[in-house]
Amino acid sequence: MDGGKDDRRREERRPGPGTPTPEPPSGVGPEAMTVLEATKIIKDRLATEPRLQDLRVA
Known about the structure:
- The protein is mainly alpha-helical.
- It has helices at residues 3-13, 35-48.
- The protein has a domain at 32-58.
- It has 2 helices and no strands.
């Protein structure tokens, strides 16, 4: 039972003050949509587009 070993591993993973923050994956930025925003857009489209009426999910 070496509880100190787990603490040391956590500290090693923590970036230091001089470590640059990793770049986000390409295409992901502050303008990226949240899942809730995307879901609302999809529901609105399903409600307003007649050709999508058959695709509606409960």
